[in-house]
Design brief:
heterodimer, A: 223 residues, 5-stranded antiparallel beta sheet, globular, B: 272 residues, alpha+beta
């Protein structure tokens, strides 16, 4: 008798793209607002960016139900941390928490492709990029999601920062100003929208600085 | 078919993730993992690996010589055919006198090396002395053995300097543990072995050994598509480890094989 295979998969891909760029004293996190399933659009107005702490903002594409569950876990762990330590979690600490949270579901992964952005203890921008099971590294810029393969080569070309592994050590954050980085993000999403069916509708941009978070919305093609 | 869960039973108390223990949150003993409720565990794992495409692919090497241990690795991570990163840290600093290398699944290696670092620190606190390389590699091998067959992908080398001198062990996800003085792990390892084995002498100086390690990684990145980025070289001596170099392999290529400018035979004259 042939083996019965599951006709039902616990996963679905809701599409979308997330990008983050780290600067000398700011961090830009952006994501489109389209949520889809198969060839249908579920929502044109779904935010993929979530503020976890004052200095740490998470943007995730993939299966949004898993993203919501992941976000809940991180929020509750952050609350416990605040009660125990009387302060907010720093971005590098949140980065490791996210990595451990993802790895604890190593055998039934969160189908979530994450980019974590924020400011480190020195006030410099930091971006952490993840795979679905929790391997992470600090980078100068990152993109995840359906449009990431279209966006990354362009960011490599415009922002190519020296690898953090080179010796003598060089700074991998971009020297661009905040306005230039936001402009770059808008350009990049406009291009990705042209060629990726899962990216479009609206672009949500969050700019994190030491004095607070600013949000901007831009229209993208709706087709 | 009933899943054989005897590997999960331990004598230590299992502190699961999410329970509020004052100590480390579930990372000190055997972490309890969520398992999918399916009759076909292996099929599910196979499909989920194809779907999430965890980052892997690599060249790492390490060898013992007169002055200690030399450890080197590339820095490329690939997800399927896409290069997800050119700047992955594949040489993991477990503590100031021990290094671990990463090959296979990036998340698996990062997590288990971090876990090993915690265990080594606990050993130091409990026994008032540093753990030996042999002991550390045994801890890691036993952890991985208890997850044997579940799809972890870890091919690592533990290199360090303890009371008995330099130590080098190879540990993999099957639970295998080998003591040796020359190893290379990863998709680019055949190429690295070629250069490493032909140039190896026990009585090398640190400069010669680091140059040999760098060249071996460079040649592996040249021929293996899944290896590339930055070639990092570390040395472990009696005082601990130091990072000797980190060079972009693209630049190393022209350093080893400089392009001679073509001599012009005919010079084009401007038409009058």
């Amino acid at each position: 008798m042939t083996k019965q295979h599951a006709n039902w998969s616990p996963y679905d891909n809701n599409g979308g793209t997330c990008v983050a760029i780290a600067g000398s004293d700011y961090c830009v996190i952006a994501a489109d607002t389209r949520m889809s399933t198969g060839y249908s659009i579920l929502s044109r107005d779904y935010s993929k960016i979530h503020k976890l702490a004052d200095k740490a903002v998470l943007s995730s594409s993939g299966f949004q139900a898993d993203v919501k569950a992941l976000q809940k876990v991180l929020k509750s762990r952050h609350l416990i941390y605040q009660h125990q330590h009387n302060k907010q979690m720093s971005c590098p600490a949140m980065a490791q928490l996210l990595s451990n949270t993802l790895y604890f579901k190593r055998f039934f992964p969160y189908y979530a492709f994450n980019v974590l952005g924020g400011l480190d203890e020195e006030g410099k921008g930091c971006v952490f990029t993840y795979d679905a099971v929790g391997s992470y590294e600090r980078v100068g810029y990152g993109a995840q999601g359906s449009g990431s393969t279209l966006i990354m080569p362009f960011l490599d070309n415009q922002l190519k920062s020296p690898s953090p592994l080179l010796l003598p050590k060089q700074d991998s954050n971009t020297p661009l100003s905040e306005a230039e980085a936001v402009d770059l993000v808008k350009t990049v999403f406009a291009s990705a929208t042209e060629r990726d069916i899962y990216t479009g509708d609206k672009l949500e941009i969050m700019i994190l600085k030491a004095d607070g978070i600013k949000t901007e919305l831009m229209d993208l093609r709706k087709d | 078919m009933k899943l054989d869960t005897s590997g999960f039973e331990t004598t230590m108390p299992v502190i699961g993730f999410g329970s509020n223990s004052e100590m480390l949150d579930g990372v000190s003993s055997v972490p309890s993992f969520d398992l999918p409720r399916t009759t076909d565990f292996d099929g599910f794992q196979k499909k989920s690996v194809e779907m999430v495409k965890p980052a892997k692919g690599t060249t790492t090497l390490a060898f013992i010589f007169k002055e200690g241990v030399m450890v080197a690795a590339d820095s490329r991570a690939s997800m399927g055919g896409y290069i997800s990163s050119q700047s992955v840290k594949k040489i993991i600093e477990i503590n100031p006198y021990m290094l671990g290398t990463m090959a296979g699944g990036a998340a698996d290696c990062q997590f288990w090396h971090r876990n090993l670092g915690i265990k080594c620190r606990l050993h130091e606190l409990a026994n008032k002395r540093r753990i030996s390389v042999s002991g550390a590699s045994k801890l890691l091998a036993n952890m991985l053995y208890s997850y044997r067959g579940m799809g972890l992908s870890v091919g690592t080398m533990i290199a360090g300097w303890d009371e008995t001198g330099p130590g080098l062990y190879y540990v993999d996800n099957e639970g295998g543990r080998l003591k040796g003085d020359r190893f290379s792990v990863g998709s680019g390892s055949p190429y690295a072995y070629g250069v490493l084995d032909s140039g190896y002498k026990f009585d090398m100086s640190i400069e010669e050994a680091s140059e040999l390690a760098r060249r071996s990684i460079y040649h592996a990145t040249f021929r293996d598509g899944a290896s590339g980025g930055v070639a990092s070289v570390y040395h472990v001596g009696p005082q601990g480890w130091t990072k000797l170099s980190g060079d972009d392999v693209g630049e190393l290529h022209y350093h080893y094989y400089p392009v001679a400018p073509a001599t012009a035979e005919h010079v084009m004259e401007e038409a009058a």
